[in-house]
Amino acid sequence: MSPWPLLLEAASSGPPDWLLRLFSVDAERVRGGAAHLRFARFPEGGLGLLAILAILASCAFVVWNYRREGALARWKKLGLAGIRSAVITALAVAAFYPVLEVDRVEDLRAVTLLLVDESLSQGIQDRYQGDPARRDAAARALGMAPEDVASARRADLVARALSSPELKVLEGLARSNRLKAYAFSSLPLAPVALPEPAVPSPLGPVPSPLGPVPSPLGPVPSPLGPP
Asked: pLDDT (tens digit, 9 = 90+) per residue, 135-165?
């Protein structure tokens, strides 16, 4: 089995925990993101290439200078040259100011606000006496008889529209964004519990997201049965 896939996976998962502890970095703050090391003061473009060449030239000069010494054994020369080259490299790394960056990608869904009117005006019954075409259009959309639409309160029509499995108002609003509903009859806005997507059930009608709305004309019995 080739070790390259394992090495690539380890490199993509970020620095190991022992390295983070060595530099006093909290490993929990790094988890969940892609961590990578970056030199904040490293010059870009041609200056960066010149900086790398200068470091390599300095290390090469140290090795060449120690090889000219004839009084020391070969392994001692190489050892001292390696120590000096490591010091030069460490100073260069410190000068370039290494920083650990963590990139996190978070999917934030927007919120669509649904404002439900629960004021006293929702207890009014619109007779549609001067606009029968509007009454008939509302009746077709809600699956009701035109005379039932004329005798229903506004709150009942809104509740039927929100819970209608044919209109799918709530499903359409929640398709791309999170949906939150509030009643704006008074301040502060009160949250409204939305029903689940309407599914025909033999257990009974789907509960309405609207509570009882007081009518300025007094309690008016609704002629509508459950939606």
From this structure: 899 888 888 998 888 889 988 888 888 888 8
